[in-house]
Amino acid sequence: MSQTSISRSLHAVVNALNAMMDNCIRFPVTANKIQEIKQGFFEKSGFPGVIGAIDGTHIAIFPPEAEREYLFINRKLYHSLNVLAICDSNCEILAVNSAHGGRTHDARVLRSSRIFAHLERKHREGEIDSWLLGDSAYPLLPFLLTPKLNEVKGTPGARYTEHHVRTRVSIERCFGIVKGRWCCLRKERALHYRPQFAALIVNACCVLHNMAIRWGIPYDEIHLDELDIIPPIPYNGVNEENREQTRNRVIQWYFSN
Asked: What is the pLDDT of residue 226?
């Protein structure tokens, strides 16, 4: 095939898969689905109330020819998209946001997402027994629990963090499976397209990933990126007392014995 034909076919397939996103990537909103996801996490790691593990991953792209190129230069000094994803205990993707450049902090990507607005609203309405699990790059919120660092071994706080880490590994494994299936998403490959279309390619790969999970298609490789610790940024939405209250309640109720 000619390069022109390949490009035309690629755009058609990617656009078609993006049109399927609402059917293939769904955040839980019904009581039955929420309970199913909570149960899946609890059976695997013993952490209650979890409706998703959240993290960001960088997808390398070719340097864009644009005035705002600096928005895509990440902490490791290469051009990328900072892709937010949330998954369940089976590594099925529940939400994805590929619209931000690599310079954007994980927490800022979250705050600009529809999921954040949805969970804030649910918390205001009184739903206080469901939460995401994120690493320390994210703010501690009533609906997003982060690890409790530097706890003495054997204490409730340490047990909480051990279960937190064991539960949240689902999203790291999810990224590893996606990049194992689709080598174009790895750092050493880089997507040679404009950022907007590169984001659509990421979405398309996530749709195909969910299809493969649901159909039980095996994967040959898990590709793990090098560890990149992102420092937290201040969050001014909810006061510190309210943020700590939820985490301390979870530790007291479930990890004290």
From this structure: 72
Strand order of the β-sheet with 50-60 is 93-101, 80-87, 50-60, 131-133, 144-145
Comparing CA positions, the residue from 33, 84, 93, 42 lying closest to residue 213 is 93
Q: Which of 187, 175, 189, 190 is nearest to 222 (CA)?
A: 175
Using left for φ > 0, alpha for ψ between -120 and 50, and beta otherwise, residue 49 falls in left
User: Has residue 238 got a pLDDT over 60?
Assistant: no
Mean pLDDT of 24-29: 96
Residue 198 to residue 211: CA distance in whole angstroms: 20
Q: Distance (Å, rounded) from C-alpha 176 to C-alpha 85?
A: 12
Q: How many residues does the chain have?
A: 257
Count of CB atoms within 10 A of residue 151's CB? 16
Q: Could you tell me the pLDDT band of residue 48, with boundaries at 50, 70 and 90?
A: very high
Query: What pairing do the DSSP bridges indicate for beta strands 93-101 and 131-133?
Result: unpaired
CA distances from 116 to 95, 143, 165 (A): 11, 9, 22
When pLDDT is cut at 50, 70 and 90, the band that residue 234 belongs to is low
Instruction: Check residue 57 and report its DSSP letter.
Output: E
| 59/41 Cα distance (integer angstroms) | 27
Indicate the pLDDT class of residue 202, thresholds 50, 70 and 90. Answer: very high
Q: CA–CA separation, 191 vs 61, rounded Å? A: 4
